Fold Cytochrome C oxidase subunit III.
Amino acid sequence: MIVLAALLLVVVLTCVPYLGTIAFAQAPAAADASPIFGVTIPQGYKQWELIAPAEEAAPLDELRAVLGNQTAIDAYQAGKLPFPDGTILVKRAWKRKQSPEFASATVPGAATTVQVMVKDSKKYAATGGWGFGRFINGKPVDEAQHRTCWGCHEARAKSRDYVFTRLAP
Ligand code: HEC
């Protein structure tokens, strides 16, 4: 019995440091979280389903793709508004570039920003239930930029739970 207990103790003690590592790896450092909202870039978002592409005219000259997690996709498909808690929307953006092989084709150039909206109606009650994050090279931009998000989304997309993008047909 004592031998068994000792063995168990050894196993547990061996695992503890690894558990710490796993927990640490899954919780992004505070420096990677957006100011005001504490939003981080969600893991695996590049594999998420496409909601719609978009194009932005000069001076930004960008191609965009709005992606959503499963909660977002389910809500879109059911035509459900407001979006439920747990919804995450990610907008990827690239500079527009002429295809080197075909003059009339426009393709993604350098990546510019990754923008994130997270729905948590309690935590973000003051901003329509949405937390915002804008990232360049994986790092959040400054607080001043994060103060602009809610104003524009609130003013222009109120009737659609502050989300502009519609599911592409
Ligand atoms: C001046 C208006 C404006 C401001 C400010 C703004 N957005 Fe948006 N946002 C838009 C528009 C318009 C779209 C629709 C897609 C597009 O045109 O790129 C959009 C789309 C998005 C989307 C995809 C979901 C949706 O609503 O369509 C996310 C995520 C997003 N914005 C995050 C942010 C974040 C984070 C900030 C602040 C750092 C921000 N936005 C500031 C206008 C704005």
Q: What stands out?
A: The mean pLDDT is 90. The first strand starts at residue 49 and ends at 56.
